[in-house]
Amino acid sequence: MSLGIVFLSEVFGTMMLTLLGCGVVANVALKGTKGNNGGFLMVTWGWGIAVFAGVFVAAKSGAHLNPAVTLGLLVNGKGEYAPDVAVTFGSTLTYFGGELLGAFLGAVVCWLAYKQHFDEEPLAANKLGTFSTGPAIRSTPWNLITEIIGTFVLVFVILTFGGTPSGLGPLAVALLVVGIGVSLGGPTGYAINPARDLGPRIAHAVLPIKGKGASDWAYSWIPVVGPLVGGALAGLVAIWVPDIMPALAG
Description:
By secondary structure, this protein is mainly alpha-helical.
């Protein structure tokens, strides 16, 4: 498979992910929407369905949709990112680039869909929260730990039981994301995906959003570094699991 196809697959898959994911947050957070004040459970299910849709769209490329998943596969020693897509420096950058661009574009389309409600929303924090994550209690080390743990769970389960998201199955990955959200999403909003947070944050910074306020760049590195560390750790630990489990069972 050509890297051009891989790139477009990840762009469109991640675009669908963030369009629907940021869309459910907009529906809950912005003034006057039909889903206003729908609650965190609505957000977590919306993100799960967003993952479900994104995995189907990006099936050709293995549907990483997330640099932490790509990094986890790399660290785990996989020979291919998807059928006929060898793990190389070039293919790794292709995945990263497609994921980031797709996340940015999905957030832009979400803004277009909710343009009038962004204009009516009085709170800048609600506008930023539609695009990117933020902590309930701001604490650099603890926010970082939360993102590492959440992403570790995501990538470890994918690597242990499925090999790649498409191998595990779209529904299983979607339910896993819902489970992480309702279990571990409270402290930081569970970015668990550098592209999902950074791409929309860039969109927030450049779009002409009325009364948008700052994009909180001081926090922005945490939902990037935390998931990358969590994904890499999951890739390392998953190497040992096939050897450990038989020993424990015996």
